[in-house]
Amino acid sequence: MRTPTLAIACAIALTACSAQAEDYKVGSIRIAHPHARATAAGQAAGGGYLRLDNQGPDDRLVAARAQVAERVELHSMTMEGDVMRMRQLDAVELPAGKTVELKPGALHMMFMGLKAPLKAGDKFPLTLRFEKAGEVTVQMAVEAMRGEPMRHDMKH
Q: What are the two backbone dihedrals, phi and then psi, of residue 63, each rounded to the nearest 5 degrees?
């Protein structure tokens, strides 16, 4: 009789995990797993990540804002030889029918001038503005750091 108990426990665990992963939609754009990394005390910047699934015509993520920081910047990160380069972008292109992921080591958001450390388990609102789809506010879940915190002293 252990099998039904195990099945029930697995179902509860899966429900709890899916309840934590909030998805949003604005226009034809679906926004999945908006999250930020926890930061250390005194850290001035933090990283933000999410997945954007554009189910309509071409669009662009043109801005973001959050009260946890002085400003939110859109960034790309690339490797040129053995040098990591990060640069601020005016927008993130969202081609029709494509999914664009903002993730560590690639396209991402930077919360610049953090007003307080981002603590694992906390949530905060982030407003995203798209060129065509308009604005939407999502809840960013702050997740524990894995490995090294993202540094913002790379070459731009």
A: -165, 160
Residue whose C-alpha is closest to residue 66's, from 41, 46, 81, 86: 46
> The domain 22-143: what is its CATH number?
2.60.40.1890
SS3 state of residue 48: strand
Digit-coded pLDDT (tens) for 4-52 = 444 444 444 443 443 445 799 999 999 999 999 999 999 999 999 999 9
Structure tokens at 147: 């490995």
Taking only the tens place, the pLDDT of each residue in 75-88 is: 999 888 888 889 99
pTM: 0.79
- Cα separation, 35 vs 130, in Å, equals 18
Q: DSSP 3-state assignment of 109?
A: strand
- CA–CA dist 77, 62 (Å, integer): 17
Domain definitions of the chain by residue range: 22-143
Query: Amino acid identity of 118?
Result: L
User: Which residues lie below 8 Å from residue 64, measured CB to CB, with a gap of 6+?
Assistant: 48, 72, 74, 109, 126, 127, 128, 129
